[in-house]
């Protein structure tokens, strides 16, 4: 029962009713013209206290609107964690579908709410549930380019085992990634076991779908992967133990730098070393021989060592968000951890690094807390080696120029003598 004093809303229109109290009877599950109840609206706006009050008064947690959506759908639509938690503990059905076949998990995945997806999966939501067009939550996350959501979903064992599930058009998640997302999403799916050789109903593989949609980088990447053996493909798409990009296959700058170092040493041993031995440049050779080994070791360690990656704390972050001990703006969603002073998320190498300095493609790694000293030592050693190489090259080139000048002057003198004769 809700009582309204007429003085609050009818004083001007009905002066004769001033002071009279009217009583109205309302049901807790009363709905508006579209079938949405008070529980729907409270869940949509994350009014957790109102949700608790309505549930305590007997509100039906699974009541659906005219389009089949429950309060769980609306909470998932906005990514309201606490409302989702209250509804689930109140007995909400996490597998109930609306008229399009969307479950709350699919709704959360469509809109990129990674923490809602984590919570629903933790509570037992079925990641394989499909809509009326047979799209599951992973396919929707891939279609809308939600990388964090896709990463979270790919941790589900059931979903990984059926990652090649196709929709009504015969397209898998890899087909959708090829035409809607980038190479990184394709890499995640292939690493998780997606088959690059599957064809849709039009007979197209994922790389051919990418070419048809003018995604030339995706087309080239998938085309190359399709020509490789499965074990090589798994190796090339993995991130290694650090889960850091380019920790297994390095950057193109790193490869180019290694080629140039290799060619410089070949040139030194073939050309400069014999010259320096003739000129008794013992100190230069000794410096280069002693410094080269630690320079190569530090170069390798700069690439392979942990730069100071902050480990994910998914459980702690999720509980903190649910109990409001952690604010959502204080969370780095891509790294699944809270923000740390002087730490930064590297978009190139896809890791959250403490005392972030910079992304260095020449060492194929981030320079951070744990490899900063090694990086500085490498710079010192490489400059010493380069200085020795440049000094020897300068002496060699200078000698060649002197010889060329002497030969030309002798040739000119001989020509002048012959002319005089």
3D structure, described in words:
It is a single chain. The chain is mainly alpha-helical and 421 residues long. 52% of the residues lie in helices and 6% in strands. The strands form four sheets. Strands 1-2 form a two-stranded antiparallel sheet. Strands 3-4 form a two-stranded antiparallel ribbon. Strand 7 and strand 8 (365-367) form a beta hairpin. The chain is elongated and about 115 Å long.
Compute the average pLDDT: 87
Helicity, in percent? 40-55%
H/E element sequence: EEHHHHHHHHHHHHHHHHHEEEEEEH
DSSP summary, beta strand count: 8
CATH topology of the largest domain: Serine Threonine Protein Phosphatase 5, Tetratricopeptide repeat
**Oligomeric state of shown chains:** single chain
* Shape label: elongated
For the biggest β-sheet, the strand order reads 1-2
- How many domains, as an integer? 2
């Amino acid at each position: 029962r809700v009582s309204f004093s007429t003085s609050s809303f009818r004083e001007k229109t009905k002066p004769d009713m001033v002071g009279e109290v009217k009583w109205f009877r309302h049901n807790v599950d009363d709905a508006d013209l579209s079938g949405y109840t008070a529980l729907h609206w409270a869940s949509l706006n994350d009014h957790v206290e109102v949700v608790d009050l309505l549930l305590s008064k007997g509100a039906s947690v699974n009541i659906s609107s005219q389009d089949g959506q429950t309060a769980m759908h609306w909470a998932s639509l906005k990514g309201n964690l606490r409302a989702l938690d209250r509804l689930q503990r109140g007995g909400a059905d996490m597998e109930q579908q609306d008229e399009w076949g969307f479950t709350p998990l699919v709704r959360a995945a469509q809109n990129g709410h990674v923490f809602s997806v984590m919570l629903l999966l933790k509570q037992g939501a079925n990641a394989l549930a499909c809509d009326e067009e047979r799209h599951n939550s992973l396919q929707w996350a891939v279609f809308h380019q939600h990388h964090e959501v896709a990463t979270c979903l790919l941790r589900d064992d059931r979903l990984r085992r059926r990652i090649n599930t196709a929709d009504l058009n015969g397209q898998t998640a890899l087909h959708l990634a090829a035409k809607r997302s980038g190479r990184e999403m394709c890499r995640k799916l292939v690493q998780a076991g997606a088959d690059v050789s599957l064809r849709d109903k039009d007979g197209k593989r994922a790389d051919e779908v990418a070419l048809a949609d003018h995604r030339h980088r995706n087309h080239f990447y998938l085309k190359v992967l399709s020509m490789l053996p499965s074990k090589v493909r798994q190796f090339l798409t993995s991130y290694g133990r650090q889960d850091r990009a380019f920790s297994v296959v390095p950057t193109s700058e790193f490869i180019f730098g290694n080629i140039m170092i290799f060619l410089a040493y070949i040139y030194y041993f073939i050309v400069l070393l014999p010259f320096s031995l003739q000129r008794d440049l013992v100190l230069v050779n000794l410096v280069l021989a002693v410094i080269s080994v630690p320079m190569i070791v530090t170069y390798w360690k700069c690439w392979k060592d942990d730069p100071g990656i902050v480990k994910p704390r998914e459980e702690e972050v999720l509980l903190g968000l649910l109990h409001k001990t952690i604010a959502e703006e204080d969370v780095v969603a891509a790294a699944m951890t809270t923000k740390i002073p002087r730490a930064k998320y590297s978009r190139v190498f896809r890791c959250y690094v403490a005392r972030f300095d910079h992304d260095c493609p020449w060492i194929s790694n981030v320079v951070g807390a744990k490899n900063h000293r090694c990086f500085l030592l490498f710079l010192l050693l490489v400059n010493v080696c380069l200085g020795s190489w440049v000094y020897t090259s300068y002496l060699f080139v200078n000698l060649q120029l002197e010889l060329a000048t002497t030969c030309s002057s002798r040739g000119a003198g001989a020509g002048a003598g012959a002319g005089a004769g």
